[in-house]
């Protein structure tokens, strides 16, 4: 009986260690070129700890704020360096022409120029100001 209990506990601890342990809360704001909140957009972080690729997302709220999620809402991301992109809102009418209020370079990890480092035990708040 004791062997079974220890085996279950080891499995439980191993699961916790691989699934969310060490995630850090990450918050921020996204402002458009005119200073207004970028509501309806989505912020995506990609990168993470060495040897492990992580992708986290956060929807931009009406006040311009976002909170990142990796596995479940608001759980944060592991410490590490991340490239960042800001996605436009979903298209409501795919036949209508879409004109972005900010430069399209922000919608691509390679061209956005946005990079942040998430650190353990620190306040990870990142303001993002996009330009035209």
What does this structure look like?
This protein has 132 residues and is of the alpha+beta class. It is built from 1 helix and 7 strands; from the N terminus they run H-E-E-E-E-E-E-E. The protein has a 4-stranded antiparallel sheet with strand order 3-2-5-6, with no helix packed on it. Strands 4-1-7 form a 3-stranded mixed sheet, with no helix packed on it. A hairpin with a 5-residue loop joins strand 2 (42-48) and strand 3 (54-59). The radius of gyration is 18 Å and the shape is globular. 18% of the residues are buried. The model is unreliable at 1-20 (pLDDT under 50).
What's this, in brief?
This protein is α+β, with helices and mostly antiparallel strands and 132 residues long. The protein has one helix at 2-18; strands at residues 26-31, 42-48, 54-59, 65-67, 80-87, 114-118, 124-129. It contains 1 helix and 7 strands, in the order αβββββββ.
């Amino acid at each position: 009986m004791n062997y079974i209990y220890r085996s279950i506990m080891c499995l439980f601890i191993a699961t916790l260690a691989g699934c969310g342990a060490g995630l850090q809360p990450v918050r921020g704001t996204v402002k458009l070129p005119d200073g207004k909140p970028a509501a309806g957009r989505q912020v995506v972080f990609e990168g993470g700890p060495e040897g492990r690729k992580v992708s986290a997302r956060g929807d931009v709220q009406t006040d311009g704020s976002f909170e990142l999620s990796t596995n479940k809402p608001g759980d944060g991301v592991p410490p590490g360096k991340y490239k960042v992109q800001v996605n436009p809102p979903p298209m409501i009418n795919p036949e209508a022409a879409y004109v972005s209020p900010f430069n399209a370079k922000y919608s691509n990890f390679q061209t956005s120029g946005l990079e942040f480092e998430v650190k353990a035990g620190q306040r990870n708040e990142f303001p993002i100001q996009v330009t035209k």
